[in-house]
Amino acid sequence: MYINFTDDAMKRIDPILNKTENRRIALMYEDGVSPYSVTAEGAMQNSLVILILRDDQPLLPWFDLEIDSNYGKIPVKGYAKSYLGDQMTVRLSSFGGLIIDSEQGILDDSAIVRDGTDMTD
């Protein structure tokens, strides 16, 4: 599995990712499971979240699989693998939102970037 972030998508993510040192990306299937999920209502609205975490925030037991990307290794919830594709792309839509697609088609046409760096303090 691989995730390619286009240059335009990176421009959208980098201000949050690079706000301070020691941050990383996780790709989260929003199912209400993990301290980084929001309410079930949020899970109904968004299926994939590009989550920005501090390096010292825990990933296990929730994020137990890593996917290669042009950002490096990205943790994901292993049981959510069936919702992902082998070759994924994160790109901007014509309206400026983030789309995650793969060889299977669009996986999420309204993916969000969430700053989760304060979610486990």
Automatic annotation (TrEMBL):
SUPFAM superfamilies: HesB-like domain (SSF89360)
Coiled coil: none
Superkingdom, taxonomy of origin: Bacteria
Domain Core residues, every copy: 1-110
This protein's name: Core domain-containing protein
Originating species: Weissella kandleri
Organism lineage: Bacteria, Bacillati, Bacillota, Bacilli, Lactobacillales
